[in-house]
């Protein structure tokens, strides 16, 4: 009798756990009217495109010039959880995202949810893009419709069990999908713009902030650098504790790629500079104003 | 002619000061590697003059900017055939940061080199005409430097 009660209780708790897990891990798309009333501005969409660094991962590797707009994907991202491959986001309706609605793009970028309602892996930096303005997403959507179509099929991610269970990403999101600004307090308009460019569109923290054991950004060590996902290199600390370049030095770096020694940016950062170089100088200055404002982390 | 002599003298000085006088005994391609790195240092010296103006650290000076751009162009126009012999990469000699990919089949090192010549030419045309032109050309030169370094230099 007593044993039966225990078993019944156990079953009830397990059932409750399953229900909670089911609810917690459920994909959470944007409200249907998230983009209602917005008129896309395609020219501004191109600015958003460069600020958000889309081409750095989704263009074919070593693409330059106009080829940067052929977003056929394929770049590999090795990680402790498996290897991710950047998908085709060209305007091709079958292999790219040409058939997506504005709502689909919004759900992918701001909620990490695919058009079929599945969780996306956070190798795609939706944790950062979630802080974007819906107007910017609408503008970007309009611009992405103007880039060339490419029929290269997207390469499936190479994820071992259990990381290949997309539903489990719902639990990850429950724990780590934090869309609050990291830097808070009184900010000038320039610092506020810089925060938007660094924390949201530019997704700088995705590389420059160290990650915990489950691959989530450690917001207590914001922009303090850390190991690369393949463990072979290091992302530099860009808080004022380590980045002691002058404002003019950092702006020049984000414009031409030259370091204060007139060496040039290397690795993935060379691709980032190709993006920041296309922004208005006021935006590069805003990024620097923000970087000078973040708390120093040793 | 005088400009080229000046360049040659400066390159020699950069070699003597930066890397020591290399001799063939130190390792494979020792002299070529030292010469290449000296030329890179010489370019950084000229870019330092141009960059200080681009950053607003010093006032724009058309004559000084033109001189630096001319020197940069001269360094880019140096004959490279004796500097980059086949196989003079960082596997042959770890003092070099040049990747074997430079000499691999399908390498676009030629296009990358031409991009540098084009960027230096644009800088030479722009540097003396005003600060805005200099800043634009600085971005092109940076892109050309980075294009080659990203593809063909040991990751930093």
Short description:
The complex is a heterodimer of chains A (298) and B (156). Chain A has 298 residues and is mainly α. Helices cover 41% and strands 4% of the residues of chain A.
Which properties best describe this structure?
heterodimer, A: about 300 residues, mainly alpha, 2 domains, two-stranded antiparallel ribbon, 12 helices, 4 strands, about 5% strand, globular, B: about 160 residues, Four Helix Bundle (Hemerythrin (Met), subunit A), elongated, metal-binding (chain B), heme binding (chain B), electron transfer activity (chain B)
By CATH, the superfamily of chain B comes out as: Cytochrome c/b562
Q: Which percent range fits the helix content of chain B?
A: 55-70%
Alpha carbon gyration radius of chain B: 16 Å
Give average pLDDT of chain A, whole number: 94
CATH level 1 class label of chain B: Mainly Alpha
**Main sheet record of chain A:** 2 strands, antiparallel
What is the straight-line distance between the termini of chain B? 37 Å
Helix content of chain A: 40-55%
Form type of chain B:
elongated
**Which sheet architecture does the biggest sheet of chain B show?**
none
**Tally of individual domains of chain B:** 1
Radius of gyration of chain A: 21 Å
Portion in beta strands of chain B: under 5%
Low-confidence stretches of chain A: none
Q: How is the CATH topology of chain B named?
A: Four Helix Bundle (Hemerythrin (Met), subunit A)
Distance between the termini of chain A: 60 Å
Number of distinct beta strands of chain B: 0
Put simply, the count of helices of chain A is: 12
> Judging by the overall fold, what is the CATH architecture of chain B?
Up-down Bundle
The H/E string of chain A reads HHHEEHHHHHHEEHHH
InterPro entries (chain B): Cyt_c/b562, Cyt_c_II, Cyt_c_prime, Cyt_c_prime_subgr
Signal peptide (chain B): 1-24
Binding site for heme c (chain B): 145, 148-149
Keywords (chain B): Electron transport, Heme, Iron, Metal-binding, Signal, Transport
